[in-house]
Amino acid sequence: MLAAALGRFAAGVRLDTLPADVVAALKLRILDTLGAGLAGVELGHHRVVLALVESSHGSAQVWGAALTGTAREAALVNSFAAHSTYLEDGSRFTGGHPSSVVIPAAVAEAEVRHLSGADLIAAVAVGYEVFLRLGRAIYPATVVRGFQSTAVLGAASSAAAVASLRKISAEASGHAIAIAANLGVGLKEALKSSASQPIQVARSCEGGIVAVTLAQSGLEGAAEIFEKGFLPAFAGTVDAPSIVAGLGSAYRIGETYLKRHAGCRGNHAPLDATLELVAAERIDPARVRRVRARVDTVTRAAAIEPPQNGEQAQFSIGFSIAVALVHGNASIFQYTAERLADPAVRSMMRRIAVEVDPGLDAGYPDKRAAEVEIELDDGRAVRHAVDNARGEPEWPLAPREVEDKFLSLATPRLGDQAGAVRDAVNVLETMSDVSALTRLLVPRGNP
To answer: Rounded to whole angstroms, how far apart are CA atoms 160 and 269?
Structure first.
């Protein structure tokens, strides 16, 4: 039974059981997620959920703010802030983002229990594995049925990570994961309101902590909740045994991508194709007469063209290309109402067409390809295609690029202290108490 098998896995993983390359990948994703959360707080995205932080005595840190709460409260706020930026890692094989549901819960739980960095790394490994294995089984069917992968998968994967940290038995861990299978749900349509959509992800992250707490209190989950409930509901017919094949020996974190740009992942392949073409042909954006970006059907269906506000701009391929051409990058700080209203950006957007190329559907999701054609003012047309965006396993970001991305996101909130956070995560496995890391997430002057 899947819940029991996942519970045994959660109870058995320790840092010394993990391959070195998996540990290195996990630390990069912890750093990357902290950066996304700090950017979300700097932009004020977290404020809408602060009313849910009712405890004045909790010791779990809201990243980037002078505010603490219970582990459950901090996990919810930090998950919301991280996912609100659409900057976190993800997996094209699951259509979801494991980091924003696993890492906020694991960090908060390790912090309040004064657990070690080794404990945290092992727990994040567990959460990722549950997310990625269940996610491969239900995707893309779950999205076709109208659900959002991250929220659907989040509670079970968060529960697995928290169960690992609390070091509960394999049996109790299985019950926690089974209970959590009921607590994660989200609708794809919610992405059309990108400011409020992160709450379904944050509640799923929080749900993992709830499920483990209930399991520790003696509640039992349904033994076949995945086989007879979760999988049929979210995907239909699934080969359940394949989900746990190689569990504990073949880790799948290498399947995940890290983002170079902000905004929806669907923006990134056409954006990278554009930037590669501009660099290769030394194109002056002022000479661009027309841009045609061709993507697969799924990617085009998720795009909002044209966007009506800064939040919708995060789902606009046209805006992403335009702002990068005009201002040189598509960082999170570009996705604002002010940039959307910028006359130069608006002018460039009018020259950009986002089209479906049905031929690209055949490779999806193994490839999420894009082709861009740029016509210049002298009539010359140049084209470039990419199979996947930067940051995918086939075209990865170097560790230094991930660190630089973190510093660009965290420095506006933490100043020079951002470098200390980076250095702490780099040696996380040697840290005896995770709270030494989370203390660095409070800005000097406590804004």
So the answer is: 32
* Three-state secondary-structure class, residue 376: strand
For the beta carbon of residue 239, count every other beta carbon within 10 angstroms: 9
The pTM of this model reads 0.91
261-288 pLDDT, tens per residue?
Answer: 988 889 999 999 999 999 999 999 999 9
Do the strands 381-386 and 68-69 form a parallel or antiparallel pair, or are they unpaired?
Answer: unpaired
139 within 8 A of 94, measured Cβ to Cβ:
yes
User: Helix 71-84 and helix 99-112: axis angle, to 10°?
Assistant: 150
- pLDDT one-digit tens code per residue, 376-403: 999 999 999 999 999 999 999 999 999 9
Domains and CATH numbers, the chain: 2-260+398-441 (1.10.4100.10), 265-386 (3.30.1330.120)
Residue type, 280: A
Q: Which structure tokens are listed for 431? A: 């840290």
Task: For residue 350, give Cα distances in angstroms to 304, 371, 398, 412.
Answer: 14, 19, 35, 32
